[in-house]
Amino acid sequence: MSMNNQGRPSAIPAGAASFDGVTGTVTGNRGLQIEEPLIFEQDSAGRTGVDLPDVPKVASRLGAVKPRAKVGLPGLAEPQVVRHYTRLSQKNYAIDSGFYPLGSCTMKHNPRLNEKMARLPGFSDVHPMQPVSTVQGALELMDQLAHWLKTLTGMAAVTLAPAAGAHGEMCGIMAIRAAHEAKGDTGRTKILVPESAHGTNPATAAACGYSVDAIPATADGRVDLEALKAKLGPDVAGLMLTNPNTCGLFERDIIAIAEAVHAAGGYFYCDGANFNAIVGRVRPADLGIDVMHINLHKTFSTPHGGGGPGSGPVVFAESLAPYIPVPYVTHGKDGFALVENAGDGLAFGRMKAFHGQMGMFVRALSYMLSHGADGLWQASGDAVLNANYVMARLEDVMTASFEGPCMHECLFDDRFLKGTGVTTLDMAKALIDEGFHPMTMYFPLVVHGALLIEPTETESKASLDQFVDALRALAERAKSGDVAYFQAAPRLTPRRRLDETAAARKPVLRWTPPVVAEALAAE
C-alpha cells in the first residue's frame, strides 16, 4: 500500500478494483468495517450541521494582528460527523471487545457497578472548591478507601493525592528525601534500581535529583542480593524495587533485601504496580517496605488507558508516615476535614493543586466492597492461576524466559523463533489478524525479544484457550518457514503495517489540503 504525504495510506485510485489487493472491494470497506477518510478530507464548503446567525461586523480589538481568512474547520452535515466518529470508535480495540493480554498493565474488566456508583450525584458533580461541610459524604468515602488501603498493605498512613503510578513514585521518593533531610543526612545521593524495574523508576529517581545505580538480576530473574549488598553504603538514599517484579516473579529474598537496605540507613520503596498479584495474601509492610504506590486501575479495577484519569495512592510505613504530603482526610468529633497544612513542618508539600481523582476513588472502593476480603483473595489467586495456565500451555512451543511458576504474568523470549526469520514484532502483527491485541513486546529489556503476557483474573478458560490456540498455531507456522505470511501481517486491519520508526521520528501532526501540499512541495 502506498503512502501519501499526509502520513497515511493513499486514497482508493479512481476506477480501482480494490483498495489494496486484500479487501477485494471497490470502496475499501470490508463488510461492515467501513473505510473512513480524515474528517478534513470530507470538507465541503457551506455544509454545516447547524444554522447560526451571521456574525455582526465589529471593530477588531486585535490591533495589528490580522485574523486568518478561515478557521480551518471542515464543513460537514450532522450525520457525517456522527458516522465519522462512530466509525473511528469501531476501529478501536478495547477490553469490552476482546482479550487484552498486555503484560505489566493489567487490562481487566471494569465492573459496571463501579461505573454506576461513580455517577451518583454527590460524587460525579463534586467540585474541589466546595466548602468542606458540603462534601462530608465524599470525604467519608475517601477516608474509608484510605482505611482499606492501609489494612490491605499493613501500612500506617496513605495519601490519595497522586494522579498516577509514576506520580506516586515521585511522592515516595520525595518523602524519602524529606526524611533524610529532616535527620540532617544530606550525603545520600544515590538510589538503587534493579535492571528489571519499570522504566519510570530510574526516571523518577533522576527527576528527584538522585543518581541511579542499577542492580543486576540473577539467572532466575530476581535481584542479585549479593550485588545489592555490595552497592549499599552511606551514599545510598534508598532502593526502588518492584514485587512481584517485571519478569512476573516474586522476589524470594525481599525480607533480606529490606534488612540490608535498612542496615545501611536507606529506605525501601516498592513499586506496587503488581500488587494485584498478592492483594489479600501478602501485606507489603510485613516485607519491610517503607513506602509503596498502588495503581488503582491495576489492582482495584478503575479504568485504565486513554491518558487518564488515573490514581496512584501511596502508602507509608511508620518510618515515613510523618512526611506524607498534604492534603489528607481526618475524622474528628466535628466530622471529616481536610488537612491542608502540616503543622509539624515535616510534610514535603503538595503533589498537585487539589486532592485527587474522585471518580477513581469511588470505583476502587466499590470494587473492594463488592468483592470483600475473600473476593480480593480469590482475584489475586485467579490472576496467578491464569498466568500459570497460559505458561503451561505454551512452554512446549515457545520459550519461557525463566522457570515457573510465575505470578500474575508470564514471560517468553524469542529463542523459539531463532532461525525462522520471524521476529517478535512479526508475531505480534500476525496476532492482530487473529483478533487479539498483542502482548507487551520487547519489555522487560533484560530479556531479548520479550513477549510479556498478563491474562488477568477476569478472563475465562475459554478465552484463554482461544488465545493460546492462536499463539500455538502462529509459533508452529513460524517454525514451518512461512516468513512471508508474518512479514505481510496484519492483513485484516483498517490499516496495514506502517513504518513505525518513521512515524515516531517524523510524525505528521497537521493535515494540509492537497492543493496546498502540492504547492509547498513545488517550492
Automatic annotation (TrEMBL):
Superkingdom to which the source organism belongs: Bacteria
GO cellular component terms attached to this protein's record: cytosol; glycine cleavage complex
Any Pfam family hit: Aminotran_5
Function: The glycine cleavage system catalyzes the degradation of glycine. The P protein binds the alpha-amino group of glycine through its pyridoxal phosphate cofactor; CO(2) is released and the remaining methylamine moiety is then transferred to the lipoamide cofactor of the H protein.
GO molecular function terms noted in the UniProt entry: glycine binding; glycine dehydrogenase (decarboxylating) activity; pyridoxal phosphate binding
InterPro entries for the chain: Aminotrans_V_dom, GDC-P_C, GDC_P, PyrdxlP-dep_Trfase, PyrdxlP-dep_Trfase_major, PyrdxlP-dep_Trfase_small
Organism for this UniProt entry: Azospirillum oryzae
Reaction(s) this enzyme catalyzes, per UniProt: N(6)-[(R)-lipoyl]-L-lysyl-[glycine-cleavage complex H protein] + glycine + H(+) = N(6)-[(R)-S(8)-aminomethyldihydrolipoyl]-L-lysyl-[glycine-cleavage complex H protein] + CO2
Keywords, in A-Z order: Oxidoreductase, Pyridoxal phosphate
Protein name per the record: glycine dehydrogenase (aminomethyl-transferring)
Sequence ranges assigned to domain Aminotransferase class V in this UniProt record: 189-305
Transmembrane segments: none
GO BP: any one term: glycine decarboxylation via glycine cleavage system
Annotated Glycine dehydrogenase C-terminal domain residues: 380-478
EC assignment: 1.4.4.2
Keyword Lyase applies: no
Region of interest (Disordered), residue spans: 1-20
